[in-house]
Amino acid sequence: MFNSITFKKFSGEKIPDIEEYVKDYMKDNPDLEIMIGTDSQNRGDFTVWSTVIAMYRPGNGAHCVFKRWKTPRERDMSTRLLSEVSYSIECAESLVAKGIKKPTCIDIDINPTQNGKSNIVFASAKGMVTGMGYEARWKTLGPLVTSVADWIVKK
After folding, report:
1. Which tens digit of pLDDT belongs to each residue from 128-152?
2. DSSP secondary-structure letter at 116?
3. Which run of H or of E encompasses 47?
4. Strands 7-8 and 46-57
5. What's the pLDDT tens digit per position in 89-125?
6. CA–CA dist 50, 68 (Å, integer)
7. pTM of the full predicted structure?
8. Residue spans of alpha helices (H) in the chain
9. What is the CATH number of the domain that holds 105?
């Protein structure tokens, strides 16, 4: 399911080959940092997902592209949150497999503090990201990419 969904620009323009798009974008902007994040939200019988790739130029903002899709409702919060992390890693790995530099970080929409419901999977989620060799950023660090993904999910 995840790989069959096409990335888009915020203008609505579809990006048929995300890896080629990122490569081309980086030719003109070689100092970019790539950041990836996924968010989800349950709505009725469905879970709405979004994955965002942010191509960030420190001090100059980010160019973001995204994909958004629905699946049957994921009722288990832990499974849904770990799926978010898995989708982000899958996206990062597909870029790296095509010769694109490794993303700087993967944002996870999980709260590390004990009073956050998502805390129950924080260690697992962080371990998934760091175990694959990526830097993990989470809610208390002000993650840019999951904030954008959250906005897309709510549209």
Report:
1. 999 999 999 987 666 667 677 777 8
2. S
3. strand 46-57
4. unpaired
5. 999 999 999 999 999 999 998 888 877 788 889 999 9
6. 4
7. 0.91
8. 18-28, 77-97, 122-131, 144-154
9. 3.30.420
Domain count along the chain: 1
Mean pLDDT of 44-73: 94
Using alpha carbons, list the distances in angstroms from residue 40 to 14, 86, 118.
Answer: 21, 12, 13
Residue found by looking up tokens 């660090």 in the block: 141
Asked if the model's pLDDT at residue 33 lies above 90, the reply is yes
Q: Name the token pair of 5.
A: 């969904």
For residues 93 and 96, give the distance between their C-alpha atoms in angstroms, rounded to a whole number.
5
Q: What is the extent of the structural domain holding 29?
A: 2-154
Kindly give the pairing relationship between strand 7-8 and strand 14-15: antiparallel
Q: Distance (Å, rounded) from C-alpha 14 to C-alpha 10?
A: 9
